[in-house]
């Protein structure tokens, strides 16, 4: 039953598993010598070696009923007590019922259970020798006996009613009077005895009781004695009984006998039992340890997640107008589990999906997991936008941080991003219409208003850091809406005027030349990017690459400036407009664009000025015919020259590591 751990309560399993394995391991041992005689009636005499013993009716009379006699009866097959070659030993249980009837008063002498390699009955082994040894074979015979002695015939005997274990001679290494156990060997009553030998622990345990008192209580032996039979007996032994009479006589009879033995592996004294115990313990420890490790990791993760969520929530709610918090379930349902069919675009550390949330069209931005700055950007974007309210900024409805998902919910922009309209020719099967001049002008004005608001219009100065056509969204009326505040950073006015990070971020083509030296985002770098955007929208050309100052020449800025030098600025205007534009306005905007892209950040107009130029309030800044060389550190313009850094006030000194996006 212990072998079926599935029936056990789980919490007990480890302890019981060990027990089960120990018990199972003892049960799977090979049974070797095994026989049972509930009685000897009809027993085959050939199954025994009988030496002066007789099978009479249903009992065996071990010794003849004459004075000074001895006799033996042994089972014919030998027991393999131990096997050096195979590294095994045998445990056994010998259970039998004896009956001793004194014929004189008192009777004599006694009976013994014996194990010996020599079945021969020693001469003159009657009287006190119990058929075990004789006066001359003491310490010579290979014999171990458990004696049931009914005579105190030797000074070594405790009394005339005791059980003892004799090794190689008649003297007991352990003996115990039976009177205290309610047994009188000479009473003529049936007596049940059990000799149990455990080869693993080298212990012999002896049980004796009156048969009529019922079942043998294995928890209550007469004694247990340490005894290694393999040290005292040869490998193969006979098992049986011997008995004797002296000047007094008694009938020493055996009424039943059950013998069972088990082979036990004990090779090279490495107790296999320990392995059986240790292996499961090690396994349990490993499993336990691993489970604990997983548990802790999971707990830490949950804790980390909770901490993150709390941190984000606190961070977001610290901002004055906290946006709504959505459930992940809701957003999954809204976007069809972020179905690719609903994908609007990607960039800015995430992918944007269209969704229907509470019957309203929304854009859901799913921040890329495991991005180095995902969380930081998330907080930046949520906190930044939620504090900003301007008609040219994309509205943030809410956010969600659950199951490690960072999500932002914006108002849906039906017309998508500006770049798709500008580069409509480069996109196959483009369904986007060409934006007319008025729309383009309006878009530039919208972006300028948004940037002016960010730089000068709100409590905290915000640097967008990633102005580009793909971040300009168009609403249903083609009004520009500045979006993607993933890189935006808030700056306290009058505190500092730039935001410094370890690596600069932005999009190649829109990055001001000094940013490669300073690694800083400033209002001037935003203005530079705005200048590039103007040139892009008016010309319909991509900004080109300018990762380093060396290749900077191939940029849109370089190209437009060259046309300006050649006084052919009109040639850069997008041919798709079919010459349908306000030439003066176009000239003015292009000059503004170039001015914003001035290599010297101090020479760039502020957004406020730019806006005034766009609305026609002031004339465009003068742009030198030759594009000035980029000089670093930049020269602060001399007093008297037109300058406008009262608001921008850039401090462009420190150089940090550089990394594009
Ligand atoms: C003891 O028994 C052995 C073997 O049977 C025998 O040779 C020897 O003579 C006996 N000794 C005595 C004193 O009877
Ligand atoms: C044991 O039984 C015998 C026979 O009945 C009797 O003579 C003897 O006194 C008993 N011994 C004890 C200790 O009771």
From TrEMBL:
Keywords: ATP-binding, Cell membrane, Glycoprotein, Kinase, Lectin, Membrane, Nucleotide-binding, Receptor, Serine/threonine-protein kinase, Signal, Transferase, Transmembrane, Transmembrane helix. The keyword ATP-binding applies. Its EC number is 2.7.11.1. It is found in: Cell membrane. Residues 338-630 form the Protein kinase domain. GO terms for cellular component: plasma membrane. Pfam families: Lectin_legB, Pkinase. InterPro entries: ConA-like_dom_sf (IPR013320), Kinase-like_dom_sf (IPR011009), L-type_Lectin-RKs (IPR050528), Lectin_legB_Mn/Ca_BS (IPR019825), Legume_lectin_dom (IPR001220), Prot_kinase_dom (IPR000719), Protein_kinase_ATP_BS (IPR017441), Ser/Thr_kinase_AS (IPR008271). SUPFAM superfamilies: Concanavalin A-like lectins/glucanases (SSF49899), Protein kinase-like (PK-like) (SSF56112). ATP binds at residue 365. One of its GO terms (molecular function) is protein serine/threonine kinase activity. The chain crosses the membrane at residues 273-295. It comes from the Eukaryota. PANTHER family: PTHR27007. In the C-terminal section; belongs to the protein kinase superfamily. Ser/Thr protein kinase family. This is non-specific serine/threonine protein kinase. It comes from Durio zibethinus (Durian).
């Amino acid at each position: 039953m212990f072998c079926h751990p599935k029936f056990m309560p789980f919490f007990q399993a480890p302890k019981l598993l060990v027990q089960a394995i120990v018990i199972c391991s003892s049960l799977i041992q090979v049974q070797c010598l095994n026989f049972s005689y509930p009685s000897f009636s009809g027993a085959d005499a050939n199954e025994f070696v009988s030496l002066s013993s007789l099978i009479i009716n249903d009992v065996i009379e071990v010794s003849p009923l004459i004075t000074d006699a001895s006799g033996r009866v042994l089972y014919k097959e030998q027991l393999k007590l131990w096997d050096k070659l195979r590294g095994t030993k045998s445990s056994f249980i010998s259970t039998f019922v004896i009956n001793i009837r004194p014929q004189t008063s008192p009777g004599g002498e006694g009976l013994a259970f014996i194990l010996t390699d020599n079945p021969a009955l020693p001469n003159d082994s009657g009287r006190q020798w119990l058929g075990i040894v004789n006066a001359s074979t003491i310490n010579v015979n290979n014999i171990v006996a458990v004696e049931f002695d009914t005579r105190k015939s030797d000074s070594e005997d405790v009394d005339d009613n005791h059980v003892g274990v004799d090794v190689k001679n008649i003297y007991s290494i352990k003996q115990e009077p039976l009177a205290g156990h309610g047994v009188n060997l000479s009473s003529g009553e049936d007596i049940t005895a059990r000799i149990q030998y455990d080869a693993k622990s080298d212990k012999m345990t002896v049980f004796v009781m009156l048969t009529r008192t019922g079942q043998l209580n294995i928890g209550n032996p007469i004694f247990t004695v340490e005894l290694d039979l393999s040290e005292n007996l040869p490998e193969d032994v006979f098992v049986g009984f011997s008995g004797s009479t002296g000047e007094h006589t008694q009938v020493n009879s055996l009424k039943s006998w059950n013998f069972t033995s088990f082979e036990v592996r004990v090779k090279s004294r490495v107790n296999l039992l320990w392995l059986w115990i240790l292996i499961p313990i090690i396994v349990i420890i490993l499993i336990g340890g691993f489970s604990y490790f997983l548990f802790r990791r999971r707990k830490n993760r949950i804790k980390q997640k909770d901490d993150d969520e709390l941190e984000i929530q606190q961070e977001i709610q610290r901002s004055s107008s906290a946006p709504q918090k959505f459930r992940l379930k809701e957003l999954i349902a809204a976007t069809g589990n972020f179905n690719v069919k609903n994908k609007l675009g990607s960039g800015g550390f995430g992918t944007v999906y269209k969704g229907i949330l509470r019957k309203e069209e929304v854009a859901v931005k799913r921040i890329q997991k495991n991005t180095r700055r995902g969380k930081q950007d998330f907080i930046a974007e949520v906190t930044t936008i939620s504090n900003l309210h301007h008609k040219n900024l994309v509205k943030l409805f809410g956010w969600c941080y659950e199951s490690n998902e960072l999500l932002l919910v914006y108002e849906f922009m039906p017309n998508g991003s500006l770049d798709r309209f500008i580069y409509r020719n480069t996109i196959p099967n483009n369904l986007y219409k060409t934006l007319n001049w008025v729309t383009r002008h309006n878009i530039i004005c919208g972006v300028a208003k948004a940037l002016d608001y960010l730089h000068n219009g709100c409590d905290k100065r915000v640097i967008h850091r990633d102005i580009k056509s793909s971040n300009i969204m168009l609403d249903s009326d083609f009004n520009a809406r500045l979006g993607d505040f993933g890189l935006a950073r808030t700056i306290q006015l009058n505190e500092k005027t730039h935001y410094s990070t370890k690596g600069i971020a932005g999009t190649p083509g829109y990055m001001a030349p000094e940013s490669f030296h300073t690694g800083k985002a400033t209002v001037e770098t935003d203005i530079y990017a705005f200048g590039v955007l103007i040139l892009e929208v008016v010309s319909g050309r991509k900004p080109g690459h300018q990762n380093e100052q060396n290749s900077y020449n191939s940029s849109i800025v370089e190209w437009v400036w060259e046309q300006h030098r050649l006084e052919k600025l009109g040639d850069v205007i997008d041919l798709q407009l079919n010459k349908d534009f306000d030439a003066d306005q176009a000239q003015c905007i292009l000059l503004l664009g170039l001015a914003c892209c001035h290599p010297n950040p101090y020479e760039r107009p502020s957004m406020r000025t730019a806006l005034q130029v766009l609305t026609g309030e002031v004339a465009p800044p003068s742009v030198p015919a030759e594009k000035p060389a980029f000089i670093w550190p930049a020269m602060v313009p001399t007093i008297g020259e037109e300058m406008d850094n009262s608001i921008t006030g850039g401090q462009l000194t420190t150089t940090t590591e550089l990394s594009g996006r």
